[in-house]
């Protein structure tokens, strides 16, 4: 679902943050490869990436515009159409 947006919008970059401390870089790389994800996935083993956004649960989504303004922060949308609406509102504001 996110792969479509990564190639549709030139100004959109998707970065997934892995919060699971039980994973390692090899496991995450295999997961990304096996699922054909075309966007970046980073590991946040010490909470330094997730803490500024008060991420308390997963899946969680933060949409930040190209000026660095947070346009949405909260639960990941439950449907493709809801995600599409959030992304389009974020890139057009």
Overview of the molecule:
The protein has one domain: 3-Layer(aba) Sandwich (Glutaredoxin). It is 33% helix and 20% strand. The protein has three helices and four strands. Strands 1-2 form a two-stranded parallel sheet. A two-stranded antiparallel sheet has the order 3-4.
Describe the structure concisely for a colleague.
The protein is built from three helices and four strands. With 93 residues, the chain is α+β, with helices and mostly antiparallel strands.
C-alpha Rg (nearest Å): 14 Å
Computed structural class = alpha+beta
Biggest sheet, spatial arrangement of strands: 1-2
CATH class: Alpha Beta
List the helices and strands and how they pair.
Elements: H1 2-8, E1 15-18, H2 25-35, E2 40-43, E3 60-64, E4 70-75, H3 80-92
Parallel strand pairs: 1-2
Antiparallel strand pairs: 3-4
What labels describe this entry?
93 residues, alpha+beta, Glutaredoxin, two-stranded antiparallel sheet, 3 helices
